Structures are given as structure tokens and as C-alpha cells.
Amino acid sequence: MVATKNSASPLAGLSEQALAHVAEYFQALADPMRLRILNTLRSGEHNVGELTELCGCSTANVSRHLAALAKQGMVGRESRGTSVYYSIADASIYALCDLVCCNIARQFEQQASVHKSFTKATQKRGRNHP
Amino acid sequence: MVATKNSASPLAGLSEQALAHVAEYFQALADPMRLRILNTLRSGEHNVGELTELCGCSTANVSRHLAALAKQGMVGRESRGTSVYYSIADASIYALCDLVCCNIARQFEQQASVHKSFTKATQKRGRNHP
DNA sequence: CATCTATTTGCGCAATTAGGCAAATAATGA
DNA sequence: TCATTATTTGCCTAATTGCGCAAATAGATG
């Protein structure tokens, strides 16, 4: 691994591999059904069958999505009896999602009130659609 | 929009559309080259040609990636002369990336400890040489 | 062991996507 | 005007991805 070690921020000076790793992490979150699963797991652990019902998704796909999330260390796996229970392994995921939701909410606000001026600066900011 | 759950957090009770929107947001971050572009923009605004050189990517692709980032409101666009300058429009992106990097660093630590010798107790955390 | 249930995985298909190449567009200057 | 530079976009290909279906595994119970 070629670490450039520019310690301005964790993102600064990342190697190709590290960048790919971060991208994979985001990729795991870039699916509505996986987000739904994570959201469902917020209330506590659930097995695959429960998630299948709660998320309205086939068992096979829930299993696959859980595998993808587990690969990124987002959820933990625990076999109990004939079932496999999954739970959130990294609560900071929700911090990520909350940040994104805030950003998107902000976008919606801006979109909703294009002609209103609630931005403090009077600059013309990125409202450009061809 | 159908809110199905109590709103303990922004992620809770998200409609299908909102969930898809969040997923799209993460999707925009789920590419190494786009992360590299964002990382490069951290030092300040750059035009497409500069980013092409700094990121080692073709002009067309840089342009496309920038369009994807702009679509999510992550970067802003400003034409000056014959060039188009892009800059970070939402600094909270870096908070996202930093969170992810911390999570991944943690993963690396755990992987490293496990890989090194699984006979040791995993409560010692002294493994950090990126 | 046989069997049932729960979960995982292999395979194929349809849809999406990143990248290369070239043509099209925009802005500047002779 | 035409030429030049900078950026965007259309088209194509290769690779990836999510899903449905069915077969395969793992664990518990008779």
C-alpha cells in the first residue's frame, strides 16, 4: 500500500487502493433496499426471514444485501438456532445517512424555493439546468 | 410521500423516493475517480483541464464525473473565459468521507489484528501503520 | 439417518455504468 | 467571419449489478 500520508484529512493523499476501498464502502450504501435494511435494523437485530417480510424483498436478495453490508463491516452476523440474526455493527453508518439526508433536505428546500432568496450571499449559486 | 415510521432520525420513515434519493447520493460517491476529483477540489476550485491532469483521467470522463457530482449538488460550476471552474459546493461531503475513512481504518486495524495472529486477545488496539 | 426450516449461492437475464473516441457546443481572439 | 481552445455530449463496448429462480448448505428435531 502506497500511503502518501498527507495528514490534512483522512481523505487527503489516499492511495488508489484506499480510494477504491472508500468507493466500495459508499457503494454498499448506494442501494435503496440496503438502506431500507439498515433502517429496519435500527430498531434492533433481525433474522433474514424477518427482514424479508419487513423490507418486502425476496429472501435470496435480502441475504445477498446483508452479505454486501457485512463485507463492509456495517452489520454483524450471528447464528442462533436455524436462523441468522443480523444487527448493526457500526452505528456511525447512521451518522452518514443523517448527513446525507440533511444535504438532500437542503437540496429540496432550494429546489422548492428557487425564486426566494434565503441564501445569505447574493451570489448566483448552481442553479443551472440546460 | 408515505411516512411509515416515527421520525427518530432523518433516515427513519423514509419513503421509497427519498430512499432512492439517498441511494443516488451515495452512488455519486461510490467511484474512485469521483472521490479523487472531490479530493483534488479540496485545495480549491479547478477547471476541467486542470482536473484532467491532476486526476489522470480523460477530459470527457472528468466532465462526466463533474456532471454527476453537480447533479447531487456536491460541486458548483462557474464559467470563466473559455474554462469552467468547479468547486466544492457542500463541505459536508468531507465529513462523510472522513467518517468513512475512520470506519475503514478501524476495519483495517481489526483485519490486521486478526490476520496477524488470531491467538491474541482482540482488545489491544496498537496497530496503525498505514 | 431423514427431514424440515432457514439461509446461502450458482446461473442467467436485464439494466446500468464507466471509459474511449469523435463530433458538437461555447467562448475568445485574430 | 474563421480559427483556436475548452468543455460537453452521443455512440459504442466491456464490465458490473440487482433480481428471480432453483439448487445447495447449515442447523435443529424426529
Task: Describe the overall structure.
- With 130 residues, chain A is mostly helical.
- Chain A has a domain of 74 residues: Orthogonal Bundle (Arc Repressor Mutant, subunit A).
- Helices cover 51% and strands 11% of the residues of chain A.
- The first copy, chain A, has a three-stranded antiparallel sheet with strand order 1-3-2.
- In chain A, a hairpin with a 2-residue loop joins strand 2 and strand 3.
- The longest helix of chain A is centred in the last third of the chain and has 21 residues.
- At the A-B interface, helix 1, helix 2 and helix 5 of A face helix 1, helix 2 and helix 5 of B.
- The structure holds a DNA duplex (30 and 30 nucleotides).
What shape does the CA trace of chain A take?
A: globular
- Biggest β-sheet strands, sense, barrel of chain A: 3 strands, antiparallel
Terminal residue distance of chain A: 43 Å
Largest interface: A-B, 52 and 51 residues
| CATH level-1 class of the domain at 16-89 in chain A | Mainly Alpha
Summarize the structure.
The structure is a homodimer of 130-residue chains. Chain A has 130 residues and is mostly helical. In chain A, a hairpin with a 2-residue loop joins strand 2 and strand 3.
Structural topology:
Two copies of one chain form a homodimer.
Chain A: H1 16-29, H2 32-41, E1 46-47, H3 48-55, H4 59-71, E2 75-80, E3 83-88, H5 92-112
Antiparallel strand pairs in A: 1-3, 2-3
Chain A binds a DNA duplex (30 and 30 nucleotides) through residues 31, 33, 47-49, 57-65, 67, 79, 81-84, 130.
